[in-house]
Amino acid sequence: MVRWLEAPPSDLSVLDRQRACLNGQQQQHRQQLADVGHIVPLPTPMQSLHNTNDRKGSGNISYIHNQIGSHGNGWPNLACTKYFAIGAATTGEEETSIKEQSDNSRKRKVEKISNQKVGCGNTAEDGMKDKRVKEDRERGGAAAKESPQANNRREASGDASKENVRPRKTDYIHVRARRGQATDSHSLAERVRRERISERMKYLQELVPGCNNITGKAGILDQIINYVQSLQRQVEFLSMKLAAANPRLDFDIDNFFNREINLARNSGVIPVTDMSSERLDPSYIQFTCLHPTSACCGLDMAMGSSDIVLHRTMSLPASVPGAILDSSLNVNGSSSSWNTGLQNLYGVEVLQGRGPAFPFQSLQGDILPRNLELEMEM
Amino acid sequence: MEDQGNNKTLSLIKTSTSSNSGFLERGRRIKVAAEMGLAESSRGRHWSRALRDRLLRRIGNGACGCQKEGLTPSKVAEDLVGEEGDDEVIEMARKLRALQKLVPGGEDLAMDRLFEETADYVEALQRQVNVMRALASLLGMLEKEKRLMGG
């Protein structure tokens, strides 16, 4: 996933000053907060990392500080510790304090976004104007309150924006208002939201092929919709193709759900459990290819992701007389035309004699040297 | 691009000595298995859960012979629409609706979450398609070899 980790250059002298001031306050601040059960000292070290002298000489570091509470599996997933390894600014002190925060019960998502005026490129570091807004959702945009830290910081930074430190909020965002723009919390929240949405649209734009030259939300949305539809249709088509190409194979999901639940409790690799199959004739498919390269000549896939574990489960409903399919696919990515990302596909299934019990194994096998084995035996 | 969990593709395979089950029926079952695998590959995701629920509900209903349940009424996310002119707003809303319908579980997602889920879903779909293509080619080669060997 894309991560927005900005590491603006830091001014050590300023930071030293700030750090000295903040450390004392941080302690007492944390004390207060500890009572409430939410420790939100995160802003303080972040403040201490602010850089007052960016290249353009105007803004400060901007960041958006989010807690995960509002999002399920946050996107992007960012560990807050990452964001504090900023140049030379991070000292041992700050790191420990930061690590303490990361150990807090409350998970945090931290994004750093440097905002820039429209038309400027996306520099990784300082933007021209940085944005920090405190969005207080529970209070509904009450007037800004100054805390000692905020005051301190403002003195040091000299910015004319408001800052809030609200310890007890479950959810707040630090964004600084841009120069010449409305600073009430509603419009700032709106702006934050809009920027978030446009980030995501940009990400989608990269993901979906062929929409790089299209501007405008509507066009991009169209492309996205078309792409998703085409992918879904491809899945359908491929499943029909699989059905057509292999009359001996059948896919069955009877009692899959039971297996699913058991599977869900298992971690990735499950050793082979049972090889007993008294009543059943094992018929297994193993891919054997004499010429690894020629075998893969038909493949034009790009499997960029890493390990793919093929799970196969075999079910033997009472109605079906006993043939099992035991299939194992061993694919070595390096020796074939497959992308390097694909390392291994390996699945082995064994069927037990009993009816409702469906053993399930998923194996993440080793990378076999240059062998694509294929054999079919009935 | 890595997801939280492992990438898994689930296939459920069973042979029947008689290939009596119709082609369409097999194809449909393969599709369900493939979608289940897709959902499994990104287990923690909202769309993944929604897809799983949908599939399992379908299986459950099929097994007991019930009819398909009616679609749950979709929540109209009011902040779906951004700030644009009226016509554009309507058009955008329509497109967002379409996207919501495509992405499993998208009906009750607002715009930003919707895009998140869409991105993840697209990635998972791409992986799924790749794996299925690989499977199809490999199995196709198997058939060819079998024929060549006079099997």
TrEMBL record, chain A:
Keywords assigned: Nucleus, Transcription, Transcription regulation
Pfam families per UniProt: HLH
Gene Ontology terms: cellular component: nucleus
Subcellular location(s) of the protein: Nucleus
One Gene Ontology molecular-function label: DNA-binding transcription factor activity
Stretch list, region Disordered: 91-170
Basic and acidic residues: compositionally biased ranges: 96-105, 126-140, 152-170
Record-annotated BHLH domain positions: 181-231
SUPFAM superfamilies per UniProt: HLH, helix-loop-helix DNA-binding domain (SSF47459)
Family listed: Belongs to the bHLH protein family.
Designated name of the protein: Transcription factor bHLH63
UniProtKB/TrEMBL annotation, chain B:
Species of provenance: Cocos nucifera (Coconut palm)
Domain IBH1-like N-terminal: 9-58
Keyword terms, alphabetized: Nucleus, Transcription, Transcription regulation
Name of the protein: Transcription factor PAR1
InterPro entries, per database record: bHLH_AtIBH1-like (IPR044549), IBH1-like (IPR044660), IBH1_N (IPR059002)
One Pfam family here: IBH1_N
GO cellular component: nucleus
One GO biological process term: regulation of DNA-templated transcription
Subcellular location: Nucleus
